[in-house]
TrEMBL record:
Domain Ciliogenesis-associated TTC17-interacting protein N-terminal per the UniProt entry, residue ranges: 1-178
GO-annotated biological processes: actin filament polymerization; cilium organization
Full protein name: Ciliogenesis-associated TTC17-interacting protein
GO cellular component annotations of the record: cytoskeleton; nucleus; plasma membrane
Entry keyword Lipid biosynthesis: no
Function: Plays a role in primary ciliogenesis by modulating actin polymerization.
Recorded family membership: Belongs to the CATIP family.
Pfam families assigned to the protein according to its UniProt record, in alphabetical order: CATIP_N (PF21772)
Length: 278
């Protein structure tokens, strides 16, 4: 699955935002993820990018932090065996959404995660008290999930998120921060549309026809090159066709099998001759 989430806004006229793109298995195992955060302050901008990808049994992580003009890079890799149950920014968002859809929080929701210093730590989830929030002029029941992220370098950070019945995120806030992200309007409910199947006529599609012709020429060139490298192929086929037209057998497949059998490396006659020579 591919997950993509982003938010962009401004705090005191300073642009800020976060975006995450993750590729996950149906077991929520992270295959690859890119996480980007930024705050553009006048004369002191902060930009953080973290990319992780599974490769050869390892999770390879590369982090780039830019503060003003100073750039700091960190790289780390961990065996997947020690990251069993890893929850990242991307997978945690999908996990919380699934919990909100079921409106039930399992017990002992603790997972492996990574802190800002790329150290292996624990992150836990718990259900928040039921409450109502106003969205687009409507007062709606929402389901809350709290995520607590431990840290090796400082105090843990706590995030509280509330979701609608359909899984849409209504509000997200970091405890202790004056900034709250809120949903201002209810998402429009998509109407079911009956899409009719349109037959594919690739000959009339310029792009597909162009790809077909390019591939056709590529194969022709490859086949011609192979035949030039192996001139015995033409002689073999020519001899076979000449004998076939002379004999005109009723069973062409049987004739072809008898004709080409002596060329087989595991032909019984060859094995007998080899045994006699030994």
């Amino acid at each position: 699955m591919m997950l993509h989430a982003q938010s962009h806004g401004a705090i005191d006229d300073c642009p800020c935002g976060t975006a995450v793109t993750a590729y996950l298995t149906t077991d929520l195992e992270v295959l690859e993820e890119d996480h980007h955060e930024y705050v553009k302050l006048e004369g002191h901008s902060v930009d953080k990018r973290c990319h992780m990808v599974q490769r050869d049994g390892l999770m390879v992580i590369h982090k780039v932090t830019t503060v003003g003009e100073e750039v700091t890079e960190e790289s780390m890799s961990y065996p997947m065996s020690v990251l069993r149950g890893l929850v990242t920014e991307g997978s945690s968002l999908l996990l919380m959404r699934l919990i909100a859809l079921r409106r039930k929080m399992p017990e002992n929701m603790t997972f492996v995660s990574l802190d800002p210093g790329l150290h292996i730590i624990n992150t836990s989830f718990r259900e928040l008290d039921q409450r109502q929030l106003e969205v687009g002029g409507e007062l709606l029941d929402v389901f809350g999930v709290e995520r607590i992220i431990q840290s090796m370098e400082g105090s843990p950070s706590t995030w509280q998120c509330y979701f609608l019945d359909d899984g849409h995120l209504v509000t997200r806030v970091q405890v202790g921060s004056p900034v709250t992200m809120r949903l201002l309007e209810l998402p429009s409910k998509a109407e079911k549309v009956d899409f009719k199947k349109i037959p594919l006529v690739w000959e009339e599609d310029m792009q597909m026809r162009s790809k077909f012709l390019d591939r056709k020429e590529e194969l022709k060139a490859d086949h011609s090159s192979y035949l030039r490298q192996h001139p015995e192929i033409r002689a073999l086929i020519s001899d076979f066709l000449q004998l076939l037209l002379l004999r005109k057998p009723d069973d062409v497949f049987l004739f072809a099998r008898e004709y080409f059998t002596p060329f087989a490396s595991n032909h019984p006659a060859d094995a007998d001759q080899e045994a006699q020579s030994l």
